[in-house]
Write a structure and sequence with these properties.
The complex is a heterodimer.
Chain A (H helix, E strand, L loop, with lengths): L1 E3 L1 H15 L3 E5 L15 H5 L4 E3 L4 H13 L3 E5 L10 H8 L2 H4 L9 E6 L14 H5 L5 E3 L4 H13 L4 E6 L8 E3 L12 E4 L4 E5 L3 H15 L3 E5 L2 E3 L3 H11 L2 E8 L4 H13 L8 E5 L10 H4 L3 H12 L2
Parallel strand pairs in A: 2-3, 2-4, 4-5, 5-7, 6-7, 10-11, 10-13, 13-14
Antiparallel strand pairs in A: 1-8, 6-12, 9-11
Chain B lengths: L32 H26 L13 H10 L5 E3 L5 H6 L4 H9 L23 H14 L6 E6 L6 H13 L3 E7 L2 E2 L2 E2 L19 E6 L3 H18 L3 E6 L18 H8 L3 H11 L5 H25 L5 H4 L8 H20 L1
Parallel strand pairs in B: 1-2, 2-3, 3-7, 6-7
Antiparallel strand pairs in B: 4-5
The chains are: A alpha/beta, B alpha/beta.
Chain lengths: 325, 362
């Protein structure tokens, strides 16, 4: 075991897989020599050479599009998009090719591509550096979308993602990159894609969250406990494919469900969770399912970001309203 | 050859003239009579197959189809240099190259009849599916180039795009990546003068398409795309260069789309009969036929006989394909993922239950 933050854990997962499989290549903007703007890939080029861990030209479509060709020719590329807000030039390659090649070639060409994507707000950044647009990607048939909230899960999920023969969008909650340290095994292990985790058992209300929001919910839960509410917290870990069983079982037990996310509220991951609760647990509901998500606005610049970000108080406020409904 | 045909001088490689006369003996590829005849027959086959598919479309037996008419020399010449392990990254108008790589008529028919199965290319090695989003496929070629170089394999990639595709950002990114990475990829711009209705002069202010190579630090060559010998000479040279030097090349093949963009298009709306007539003189089959007739290797009678033979075989295989295809519900689901998520399986099961109910009502 070793104390790791999320950055260390991702680096460790890449290290293990690079050592194990020569078909893996890691590239993106600043990903090679410098180790990425967040230093997630630091030291890997030195260890595995500039043919396997390298800087690409500054072009997101180029990064994603060349990964398609590499995958067709037998490699397993792990590509980095520097920030969520910069992924859009690559969107066409993702929605038109990465997620379609297996189907288009009737199974002949697999797309074992991992797209690493630091996402989310709360870091006082410039425009385009704070988005949380995972729902756009979860909506694309052919893609898997995962998001860890702990160093342990970051390592285990990334190993699963790299070993997946299907393309995986690997969201990295950059706000908590270095915020949490945890004892993580230095051995290889994996966390399965498609399995949520019940972080706390409770009886009054189910809260579903993921990524950097888990910590905020946990803070709200301290307040909820003081107020006498028993909260069941589910860390989604995978957005698509959604672990419907875990969510459904929980909401059937508690009768109430709240989604907490920093994404724009409408047509989002939260909307899908609400639909699930209604479709699968309608008769068990004792209060309307509730989304605690961001406004449908562009993430404000740093001086206004506090209006946008979901706070523990806001989560507690909605927990109380839902339980007392 | 790159020095003598510097795109900055706007010179175009041409081996035979419009009357089939060799005007560049030095660059005329060495070909036996059998090889010459094969090249011509391959072009004739593409033209015949192309006409047949258009007529099937008119009969409502296939969906929208983009004809190759007038551009046959380019695909056939590419097909003549592509080795078994070389990669073909198609756009959608280079049928001669697909066939040479082992794509079957049945594949082509199935695809045009509306079945993804036609893009599995079971009998072909290293052919990517056709790419509809313009120019996006060029990046795949650059990626393949990187992979084969990394794997130390001796495999060259030929990737196609049209003149309109050169305006796309992915064209720039692909050539830029290929230039930086120094990969053995030949990018071919089939400059057929129109992107649907938009003439090439509205796509670029560049002197020609080949000159764009200079911006990426790679070699470029402008070639008469309706001259099968010039195309073959260019591909042979570029192929050897790409392999030996581990470098990308940009070839502009100057041609003319004699047919419509697709069967849904009417070119009479945006171009003149005079222009079409002018390009008829440069038709790639006509030019090679005149060359072969001078050598007494070909005749109208032979052409008629073999065309009939082709038509019969094409029609036989088309009927066979038409009778064998089916699209079960599961085919819409089963290739979405290498490992299908349970949720997707559930969606299929749910629909099957509906179908059971529906069938029970009758």
């Amino acid at each position: 075991m070793k104390a790791m933050n999320i950055v260390n854990a991702i680096n460790d997962a890449l290290d293990i897989k690079l050592k194990e499989d020569k078909n893996i290549v890691v590239y993106g903007e600043d990903t090679g020599f410098e180790g990425g703007v967040f230093r997630v890939t630091e030291g890997l080029q030195k260890k595995y050479g500039a043919e396997r861990v390298f800087d690409s030209p500054l072009a997101e479509s180029g990064i994603a599009g060349t990964a398609v060709g590499m995958a067709v020719a037998g490699l397993r590329p792990v590509i980095e998009m520097q920030f969520c807000g910069f992924i859009y030039p690559a969107f066409n390659q993702i929605i038109s090719h990465i997620t379609r090649y297996h189907n288009r070639s009737r199974g002949r060409y697999r797309m074992p591509i991992v797209i690493r994507l630091p996402y989310g707000g709360g870091i006082n950044a410039l425009e385009h550096h704070s988005e949380s647009m995972e729902a756009i990607f979860a909506h694309i048939p052919g893609l898997k979308v995962v998001v860890p909230s702990t160093p342990h899960d970051a390592k285990g999920l990334l190993i699963s993602a790299i070993e997946s023969d299907d393309p995986v969008l690997f969201l990295e909650p950059k706000r908590i990159y270095r915020a949490i340290k945890q004892e993580v095994s230095e051995e290889k292990f994996s966390v399965p894609i498609g399995k949520a985790k019940v972080l706390s058992q409770g009886t009054d209300v189910t809260v579903v969250a993921y990524g950097a929001m888990i910590r905020e919910v946990q803070k709200a839960m301290v307040m909820a406990k003081e107020a006498g509410y028993s909260v069941e917290l589910i860390d989604l870990r995978t957005i698509y494919p959604l672990d419907k069983e875990t969510i459904t079982a929980s909401v059937k037990k508690t009768g109430r469900i709240i989604f907490v996310g920093e994404e724009p509220r409408s047509f989002g991951v939260g909307s899908e969770i609400m639909a699930l609760a209604n479709e699968e647990a309608f008769l068990h509901l004792e209060a309307p399912p509730k989304r605690v998500a961001a406004f449908d606005v562009i993430v404000p610049y740093p001086r206004g970001e506090h209006h946008y970000m979901i706070t523990p108080e806001k989560i507690f406020y909605e927990i109380e309203r839902t339980v007392k409904f | 050859m790159f020095d003598q045909f510097d795109p900055a001088d706007d010179k175009m490689l041409q081996v035979i003239d419009n009357n089939g006369k060799v005007i560049d003996k030095e660059r005329m590829p060495q070909l036996s009579d059998d090889e010459l005849l094969k090249l011509y027959r391959d072009m004739l086959f593409v033209r015949t197959l192309d006409f047949m598919i258009v007529s099937y479309q008119r009969q409502g037996r296939v969906y929208t189809y983009p004809p190759n008419y007038g551009q046959e020399a380019i695909g056939v010449a590419a097909g003549a240099v592509l080795r078994h392990d070389d990669w073909l990254v198609p756009a959608f108008r280079e049928m001669g190259a697909w066939l040479a790589k082992g794509v079957t008529m049945k594949d082509i028919f199935m695809f045009n009849m509306g079945f993804e199965d036609g893009m599995r290319f079971n009998e072909a090695n290293h052919v990517l599916p056709f790419s509809v989003p313009i120019a996006s496929q060029l990046l795949h070629a650059a990626g393949i180039g990187y992979a084969v170089k990394y794997q130390k394999k001796d495999e060259v990639t030929i990737a196609f795009v049209g003149d309109g595709g050169t305006s796309e950002g992915d064209f720039h990114e692909a050539l830029n990546f290929a230039g930086v990475w120094k990969v053995p990829v030949i990018f071919v711009v089939q400059n057929n003068q129109y992107a649907i209705s938009v003439p090439v002069k509205m796509q670029t202010a560049s002197l020609n398409m080949a000159i764009k190579s200079k911006a990426y630090g790679i070699q470029g060559l402008k070639v008469d795309g309706n001259d099968i010998f010039a195309m073959l000479a260019a591909f042979r040279y570029a192929h050897e260069y790409a392999r030996k030097e581990q470098q990308a090349v940009l070839i502009e093949a100057v041609t003319y789309r004699k047919g419509a963009h697709t069967t849904s298009d009417d070119p009479t709306k945006y171009r003149t009969a005079e222009e079409e007539k002018e390009w008829d003189r440069k038709d790639p089959l006509r030019r090679m036929k005149l060359f072969l007739e001078k050598k007494k290797l070909w005749s109208d009678a032979e052409e008629e006989r073999i065309t009939e033979e082709y038509k019969k075989e094409i029609d036989r295989q088309f009927l066979e394909t038409e009778q064998s295809v089916k699209y079960p519900l599961e085919d819409a689901f089963k290739y979405m993922y290498a490992v299908m998520p349970q949720d997707l399986r559930d969606q299929q099961i749910e629909h099957e239950k509906f179908l059971q109910w529906k069938n029970g009502r009758k």
